[in-house]
Amino acid sequence: MVATQMIDRNTIEQIVRQIVFQQSGSAESPPGQSDKSELVVSISARHCHLTDEHVEILFGPGSTLTPMRDLYQDGFYAAEETVMVVGPRRRMLPNVRVLGPTRPHSQVELAFTDGISLGLDVPVRHSGNIEGTPGCVLVGPKGVVELDEGVIRAARHVHMNMRDAENYGVKKGDFVNLHVNSPQCSVVFEDLLVRADETSKLEVHIDTDEGNACFLDGANKVELKKQEPCGCKNKVKE
Amino acid sequence: MVATQMIDRNTIEQIVRQIVFQQSGSAESPPGQSDKSELVVSISARHCHLTDEHVEILFGPGSTLTPMRDLYQDGFYAAEETVMVVGPRRRMLPNVRVLGPTRPHSQVELAFTDGISLGLDVPVRHSGNIEGTPGCVLVGPKGVVELDEGVIRAARHVHMNMRDAENYGVKKGDFVNLHVNSPQCSVVFEDLLVRADETSKLEVHIDTDEGNACFLDGANKVELKKQEPCGCKNKVKE
Questions:
Q1: A47: β partners
Q2: What is the mean pLDDT of chain B?
Q3: C-alpha dihedral over A143, A148, A151, A152, to 10 degrees?
Q4: pLDDT (tens digit, 9 = 90+) per residue, A72-129?
Q5: Which residues in A lie closer than 8 A to residue B13 (C-beta atoms)?
């Protein structure tokens, strides 16, 4: 039992690693009195989303996903279930975690490194925008599903609620930058899409390549900044 | 023979992928009349450097490295030779390319992703600064070497000559930022150490995690920029 629990914990830790930083208050707010939310930066390891129909094909008639661990956003979870993802030339990733709940379309989210090992050119797409993307074969314990499309590298994004959006001076559909200060490998990730709604918690999603590029686990500061034009030589966008 | 050549080409392409961009001229220089060097950004895949002694242990008495392909910097090459790198708990990377010429100390350079798959916490270090870093076991066709230290993630850096340094307004030991504009995944890599000498060609070295994070192959613009303080909200460093 102990061994099983350790394996599960390792597995869980590989699904989503999260780094939480207290956003520094603005110049107008004395320290500790800021009303800004804590900034959570989550590294999503490779995973997939499935339709109800595909869950039944892969795991047997009548099957539903079994929640294993809640994700940071309410209502979402990592499931007990995993699938094998098979790419061209029979290369494969043996244990890709399924996230729940089920969705209207099945979708596989990989880092570029995963795509290279699978032999796939994985396009950067926002979740759900899968038209024209490569497909793959999913193998479960009870069946096989051939996806015609749906393999993507999830584009960076940040979930937030309307109060967060107001604090940052942004709205749904805007883009922001994530500054990660890490010893000897600081990075500014541009192009994070703002996904604002009434209920989401403030959370950035990046993938394992991005998390490893900036050694997020070793970071001493993360900040979200609105993209604004400026005249200085350090400007992020021209 | 054709199959062998294809395998070799694939292998070679995985050693160093290079993206070359013409640096845009400054505002003072009409287009095409800039004296700035072309900016080459190279992605170094995992590789190792060996001492003469370790080459003989791994590949047999009297062995020397066999150059397979010249690297961009004059005098450096990818060798025909590869070694197996074995980490703790007997996890391993089967074919890690040796780069030449030999050095006074053996050193293994991995991306974080490689370190995770080997089970090693790989510190970010500049080449040669290996004191206190983890070791590993190297296995060659004729022998085995146990390194007490020398496994690092190479810190980002840029080689240049003195004319390049003058053009950028920097000197040896300064830090610069690399801006990579890529559709939906632009990145600013900070903390690139300037390694300026009389003869080097202008070339940035990043690793595979960094290259994948910004999808360097799909980039439409790369720029090196001096780190300068500014008062704007997009400032890179505070």
A1: A97, A109
A2: 86
A3: -160
A4: 999 999 999 999 999 988 899 999 999 999 999 999 999 999 999 899 999 999 999 9
A5: none
Per residue in A220-232, pLDDT (tens digit) is 999 999 986 654 4
Size of interface A-B (CB pairs under 8 A): 111
Residues of B in contact with A236 (CB under 8 A): 179, 188, 234, 236
| Residue B29 scores a pLDDT above 50 | no
Do the Cβ atoms of A234 and B235 come within 8 Å?
A: yes
pTM tops 0.90: no
Transcribe chain B into DSSP letters: -HHHHHHHHHHHHHHEEEEEEPPPPPTTSPTT---PPPEEEEEEPSEEE--HHHHHHHH-TT----EEEE-SSTT-EEEEEEEEEE-GGG-EEEEEEEEES--SS-EEE--HHHHHHHT--PPEE-TT--TT---EEEE-SS-EEEESS-EEEEPPEEEEEHHHHHHHT--TT-EEEEEEE-TT--EEEEEEEEEEESS---EEEEEHHHHHHTTGGG-SEEEEEE----SSTT-S--
% of chain A with per-residue pLDDT over 90: 76
The answer, yes or no, to whether residue B206 has pLDDT greater than 70, is yes
Q: What is the DSSP string of A192-234?
A: EEEEEESS---EEEEEHHHHHHTTGGG-SEEEEEE-----STT
DSSP A87: -
CA dist., res. A167 & res. A37, Å (int) = 9
Chain B: residue whose CA lies nearest to A112: B212
Could B234 and A228 be called an inter-chain contact, meaning their C-beta atoms sit closer than 8 Å?
Answer: yes
